[in-house]
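Researcher: Here's the sequence for the chain we discussed earlier.
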Amino acid sequence: MLFMSNRPKRPILKANGESFGERLRRLRKAQGLTQGELGEVLDVSVRAICSYECDECQPPANILVPMAKQLNVSIEELMGITAPTVQKLPALQRRWARKFDRIQGLPERQQRAIMQVLDMALKANS
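Model: Thanks. This is the structure I predict for it:
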């Protein structure tokens, strides 16, 4: 038996022609992130990110700042208060920048090993 709630769905508020979920999806994809990658950084599940993007629920206030930072936008833009800004870096460069940020968090020994691999690859192609 299928149970259906009689509660009406709450209306989806749109700012600048986009709902929060639509805006989140657009910004995430513009950064070249999957739902899983964004969820991992924010310490939330893929299902949570999917729920936000489908406008099923709103993210808790405590993850809005890290979310905006990861998406390289202001809180105002994330919330739809201001118009979207033009992305300054191509997607591939943004992905490299994120990788380098993650590498900086590794122990120094691992950083040196990664540097050696990059140096060898660059030397082989020059």
